[in-house]
C-alpha cells in the first residue's frame, strides 16, 4: 500500500481502502489542504483565486502521491491550483474542441460518423488542473438530468451509424455501479452499438473505486454483442502504484481491454525517459499506451502546454528504442472541432526513380525500392 501522509496516519487500512470514504474525504479547501501539505504563497493564493472558475478537489489517496514540500512535484502540479491558471493565452477557448457545436442533443457530442461521446456525469474524483472540459466539469449545476440522458440515448438509438459510444464526463466511475450498469444495459439494447468505451481517470486518482462489485458488473456486460473497453489517463510513473495495479488487474480480469491516453504536460511528462518509464510500467499492468495527447487550447492551461515539436521529438525517442507496444500515437485534437490528427517524426526523406529514401530511428539512411518501378526500368532497358 502507498505510504500515507502524516495527517492520515491514524486512518485504519480498511477505511483508507474504501472508495466511498476516499470520495467523501476529498480535500476541497485551503484549510484542509494545509493540514496535509506545506503550501507556497502562490498555491495558497491560487486556491482562493481559482475557486469560482474550476474548484479544487483531491482524494486523500492522490495526495499521498504528492511530494509534501516540492511545488514542482509532477503529481502536485496536476492537483493543486496555480496562479498561472488565471492567464489566458492567445487562441485559448472555453470549449476548445467545439464539443457544444457538435452536440445534437444535450449531453452528447457526435463529431465522427461512427462514434458518439456521452457525458454521463460532470463529477470526477479529482479535478485535474489541465482539464479540457473545465467549463462544465466540477460545476454541479451542469450535471446531466435523467431526461437529458434519455434524449442522448434516443439520438444514439435513431442513428444506426453510431457503432461506438464513449461514456465520459466528468468521470463515469463517479456514478454508482448500479447507474453505470443501467447505462450499459441501455446501450446493449441498441442493436447497432458494438463498443462502449468508459473514459475514466479513477484508476489514477481513486483506484479503490474498482472494487469486486464493479469488476463483476463489467464482466457481466462483456458480450459478443457489446464489448466494454476502458480508456484511462496515467500521466506519470509515480501514479502507477500497487493500488492502481490492483485496479487494472481487476478490470483486465473482467475482460476489458485497457488503453492509456497520456496528456503531454510541460515539466511533468515531457521527457523521453519519463514516458518510457511510464509506458513500460503500464504494459506490465496490462494497459496499452494508446495516445499521447497534445494539451488542448483550453483556457488557463498555457503553463502546461508544450510546443508541437517537443511531442514529435519525444516520439522520436520512443520508436525503435523501446518495444512497439510502448509507442503510442501522438495526436493533436484540432482546435475548433476539426478532430484528431496524428503527429509523426519524419522518417521518409525523399522519393527517387526506384522508390524512397528513409532515415531509420538512429538517423541512418536506407533505401526502399518499389518492385513495380524496378520492373518498368528493366523493361525500358531490354
Ligand atoms: S478526470 Fe478527466 S474530466 Fe475529470 S477533471 Fe480530470 S481530466 Fe477533467
The small molecules bound here are:
iron/sulfur cluster
Find the CATH superfamily of the largest domain: Aldolase class I
The total domain count is: 3
How many extended strands? 12
CATH-derived topology of the largest domain:
TIM Barrel
Distance between the termini: 74 Å
Strand order of the largest sheet: 1-2-3-4-5-6-7-8-9
Shape: globular
Number of separate helices: 14
Please state the CA-atom Rg, rounded to the nearest Å: 23 Å
Overall pLDDT: 93
Report the β-strand fraction as a percent range: 15-25%
Helical content stands at 25-40%
Please describe what this structure looks like.
The chain has 382 residues and is an alpha/beta fold. The protein has 3 domains: 6-86, no CATH class; 108-342, TIM Barrel (Alpha-Beta Barrel); 348-381, no CATH class. The protein is built from 14 helices and 12 strands. The strands form 2 sheets. The protein has a 9-stranded mixed beta sheet. α8 (177-188) packs parallel to α10 (212-221). The longest helix is centred in the C-terminal third of the chain and has 13 residues, at 272-284. The mean pLDDT is 93. Residues 124, 127-128, 131, 133, 137, 169-171, 201 line the site of iron/sulfur cluster. The site of iron/sulfur cluster (SF4) has 10 residues, from loops.
Amino acid at each position: 500500500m502507498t505510504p500515507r501522509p502524516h495527517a492520515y496516519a491514524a486512518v485504519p487500512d480498511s477505511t483508507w481502502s474504501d472508495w466511498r470514504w476516499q470520495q467523501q474525504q476529498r480535500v476541497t479547501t485551503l484549510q484542509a489542504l494545509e493540514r496535509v501539505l506545506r503550501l507556497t504563497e502562490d498555491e495558497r493564493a491560487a486556491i482562493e483565486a481559482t475557486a469560482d472558475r474550476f474548484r479544487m478537489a483531491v482524494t486523500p489517496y492522490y495526495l499521498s502521491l504528492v511530494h509534501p514540500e516540492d511545488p514542482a512535484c509532477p503529481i502536485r502540479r496536476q492537483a493543486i491550483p496555480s496562479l498561472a491558471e488565471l492567464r489566458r493565452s492567445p487562441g485559448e477557448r472555453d470549449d476548445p474542441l467545439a464539443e457544444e457545436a457538435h452536440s445534437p442533443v444535450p449531453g452528447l457530442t457526435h463529431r465522427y460518423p461512427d462514434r458518439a461521446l456521452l457525458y454521463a456525469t460532470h463529477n470526477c474524483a479529482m479535478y485535474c488542473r489541465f482539464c479540457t472540459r473545465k467549463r462544465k466539469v466540477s460545476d454541479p449545476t451542469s450535471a446531466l438530468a435523467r431526461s437529458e440522458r434519455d434524449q442522448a440515448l434516443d439520438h444514439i438509438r435513431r442513428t444506426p451509424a453510431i457503432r461506438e459510444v464513449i461514456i465520459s464526463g466528468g468521470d463515469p466511475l463517479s456514478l454508482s455501479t448500479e447507474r453505470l450498469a443501467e447505462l450499459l444495459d441501455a446501450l446493449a439494447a441498441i442493436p447497432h452499438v458494438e463498443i462502449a468505451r468508459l473514459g475514466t481517470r479513477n484508476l489514477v486518482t481513486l483506484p479503490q473505486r474498482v472494487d469486486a462489485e464493479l469488476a463483476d458488473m463489467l464482466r457481466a456486460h462483456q458480450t459478443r454483442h457489446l464489448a466494454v473497453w476502458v480508456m484511462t489517463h496515467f500521466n506519470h510513473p509515480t501514479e502507477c502504484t500497487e493500488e492502481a495495479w490492483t485496479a487494472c488487474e481487476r478490470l483486465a480480469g473482467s475482460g476489458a481491454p485497457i488503453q492509456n491516453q497520456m496528456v503531454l504536460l510541460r515539466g511533468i511528462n515531457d521527457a523521453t525517459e519519463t514516458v518510457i518509464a511510464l509506458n513500460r510500467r503500464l504494459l506490465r499492468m496490462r494497459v496499452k499506451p494508446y495516445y499521447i495527447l497534445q494539451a488542448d487550447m483550453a483556457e488557463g492551461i498555457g503553463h502546461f502546454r508544450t510546443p508541437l515539436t517537443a511531442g514529435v521529438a519525444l516520439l522520436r525517442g520512443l520508436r525503435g528504442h523501446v518495444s512497439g507496444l510502448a509507442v503510442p500515437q501522438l495526436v493533436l485534437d484540432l482546435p475548433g472541432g476539426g478532430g484528431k490528427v496524428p503527429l509523426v517524426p519524419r522518417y521518409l526523406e525523399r522519393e527517387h526513380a526506384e522508390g524512397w529514401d528513409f532515415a531509420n530511428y538512429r538517423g541512418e539512411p536506407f533505401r526502399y525500392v518499389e518492385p513495380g518501378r524496378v520492373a518498368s526500368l528493366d523493361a525500358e532497358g531490354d
